[in-house]
Design brief:
Blueprint: H1 5-19, H2 28-35, H3 39-51, E1 55-58, E2 64-67, H4 76-84, H5 91-95, H6 109-125, H7 128-133
Antiparallel strand pairs: 1-2
């Protein structure tokens, strides 16, 4: 499984909204500057997040975007599935036995099911609040999104 740029940027966008969750709408331009992501790319991402109800858009001069829920009510898995579609490592696990003629005799299907469960459990255990409050590279953390 490889998370696309869209998935990585969606998480960064949502973390930025969580970090600036003070009741005022956050503009794409502000997020773009802080996260070094083009406004055009962010526009594509916010369309998906807005359509899924994960964010709210406010129009007008004071417009921008807000989280539709508290940061602890989102999981990384929910955000990634919204923009990526699936986190399954192989098609047969995502689409089920009908997608593969060898599914019933496959010696590796149990491995893929287990890996899928580990990925799902972990992605669903990390909240947006966890990500927003976690260490950054500037804090000495050695991970990135």
């Amino acid at each position: 499984m490889l998370i696309s740029t869209r998935g990585r940027y969606a998480l960064r966008f949502m973390i930025d909204l969580a970090e600036h969750n003070n009741g005022e709408a956050v503009t794409l331009k502000a997020v773009s500057q802080r996260q070094d992501i083009s406004v055009k790319y962010l526009e594509q991402i916010v369309t998906l997040l807005n359509r899924a109800g994960l964010i709210r858009s406010i129009r007008g001069n004071q417009g921008g975007y807000l989280l539709s829920r508290a940061p602890e009510e989102y999981t990384a898995g929910e955000i990634l599935r919204t923009v990526e579609g699936t986190l399954s490592p192989v098609t047969c696990i995502d689409q089920g036995p009908a997608s593969c003629q060898r599914y019933t005799i496959c010696k590796t299907v149990r491995f893929w099911e287990g890996l899928d469960q580990v990925i799902t459990d972990y992605a669903n255990s990390v909240t947006l609040r966890d990500l927003a409050e976690g260490p950054s590279a500037a804090d000495g953390g050695d991970w990135c999104i």
